[in-house]
Amino acid sequence: MAQLQKTLAEVDPVWSRICQEAEMAIQEEPLMGGLIHSGVLHHGSFEGALAYRLSMKLASSEMSEQILREIADAAYAAEPNLTSAARADMVAIFDRDPACHRLIQPLLFFKGFQAIQSYRLGNWLWRSGKRDLAYFVQMRVSEMFGVDIHPAAQIGQGIMIDHAHSIVVGETAVVGDNVSMLHSVTLGGTGKEDDDRHPKIGNGVLIGAGAKVLGNIRVGHCSRIAAGSVVLEEVPPMKTVAGVPAKIVGEAGCSQPSLTMDQLLNGS
Q1: Domain named Serine acetyltransferase N-terminal: which ranges (predicted)?
Q2: Which of 146, 193, 194, 251, by CA, is between 20 and 30 Å from 66?
Q3: Per-residue pLDDT at 187
Q4: What's the CA gap between 252 and 265, in Å, rounded?
């Protein structure tokens, strides 16, 4: 196992760093040794550790850890892009969240990261025609993390969901790459229509806490949505919107709002 980890570390710097952090964490707090060994060091790859972690979090009396682990292993073997996206999400959290000091933290402790990786598993099941299993994963993610993402939604990579409480993403929503959103964000519909009815979020968008984006509208790339806003109309690229209903109040303030995480309206 040690030789396999060494070999993989040469081509997977994210996994290498996680393993190094795991060893250091055990030295600093021996009481965490069992959790960290079972969650990280027992596995020969990032894919194995992620599959194990998700199976532990999503298991219930209705669906065992073993079955969920087999599903996750099959997904990661069939579609390596799932764990490439997970790596991008992890690095995004490390870069943008001042509370994240080590890569091991999202894997073991951050429900935003765990919820989005569980969504990715459910999305794979949905696209593979296993829709009842996908709905089961959606249900467990909602129950465990307070995050309700329909498995048919399309979400890019480099995603950070900070705090990840009361997040709702509807069936026909599309979220681009490098998007950051805070707690209590809703990407929802406006009625009972049964067609394309949810928002389309561009790349590099920052969505503040409690913001609601409703209907089949586009939010342009690298824009900002202020906390508590209700967005009912299209947002042009690189603008800041705020209010109920949201109106344009200025420019985005920088080229990549989702990376800087600047939520102040001054100088917009």
Answers
A1: 14-118
A2: 146
A3: 98
A4: 9
Greater pLDDT, 4 or 247: 247
Distance of CA 59 to the CA centre of its chain: 19
Please give the Cα distance from 17 to 104 (Å, whole number). 8
The whole-angstrom separation of Cα 35 and Cα 169 is 31
Mean pLDDT of 106-133: 98
State the residue for tokens 């040794």.
33
For residues 24 and 37, give the distance between their C-alpha atoms in angstroms, rounded to a whole number.
12
Across 7-34, average pLDDT: 88
Question: DSSP labels for the chain?
Answer: -HHHHHHHHHH-HHHHHHHHHHHHHHHH-GGGHHHHIIIIIT-SSHHHHHHHHHHHHH-BTTB-HHHHHHHHHHHHHH-THHHHHHHHHHHHHHHH-TT--STHHHHHT-HHHHHHHHHHHHHHHHHTT-HHHHHHHHHHHHHHHSEEE-TT-EE-SS-EESS--SEEE-TT-EE-SS-EE-TT-EEE-SSS--SS-S-EE-TT-EE-TT-EEESS-EE-TT-EE-TT-EE-S-B-TTEEEETTTTEEEEE-SSS-HHHH-----TT-
pTM of the model: 0.92
Rounded-to-integer distance, Cα 78 and Cα 223, Å: 35
pLDDT band at 68 (very low <50, low <70, confident <90, very high): very high
Q: Is the pLDDT of residue 192 over 90?
A: no
DSSP-derived pairing of the beta strands 247-251 and 218-219: unpaired
